[in-house]
Design brief:
- The chain is an alpha+beta fold and about 140 residues long.
- Strands 1-4-2-3 form a four-stranded antiparallel sheet, covered by helices on one side. A two-stranded antiparallel sheet has the order 5-6.
- Strand 5 and strand 6 form a beta hairpin.
- The longest helix has 16 residues.
């Protein structure tokens, strides 16, 4: 299963931990990190440790962030299936686990990609404030 990490500004992730995360989840690495002014989002399919360590030091260390180390369950190993996914302006999503209730119409794409492209983007495109509704959040 993928590894999803909520990284706080005080988090202490060592090089050894990064290596371990990547070793067990080598099918992609992505993150969103907020530096106080801008949200940085990057995705690497089949990440290499040197690149992950550089991104961690440059964008993540000391910041609020979400890190996702992918282990492929559905879809191809590529950038398009690497988390996080842009849902709407200012809204990104990463998921851990298998979404068994999502129809996978394109076998090359992941279950999370299908959830976002086939359900969330159309709903939030039509009703942008839906994301703020407690019932929608609970359902999601």
């Amino acid at each position: 299963m993928c590894m999803l990490i909520h990284h706080t500004p005080k988090a202490k992730i060592t090089r050894e931990m990064l290596k371990n995360f990547l070793y067990h989840n080598a099918d992609g690495f992505g993150f969103t990190a907020f530096d106080g002014k801008k949200l940085h989002c990057m995705k690497l399919p089949v990440a290499d440790f040197k690149d992950v360590a550089h991104l961690y030091d440059t964008y993540i260390r000391g910041k609020e962030a979400i890190l996702h180390f992918r282990m492929r369950t559905h879809g191809d190993i590529n950038r398009d299936n690497t988390h996080p996914f842009k849902v709407a302006d200012g809204l990104w999503m990463a998921h851990n686990g298998v979404l068994s209730n999502v129809t996978q119409r394109d076998k090359a794409m992941s279950d999370t990609w299908h959830l976002i492209e086939d359900y969330l983007k159309p709903m939030l495109g039509a009703y942008p404030l839906l994301i703020r509704e407690a019932g929608f959040q609970k359902m999601l």
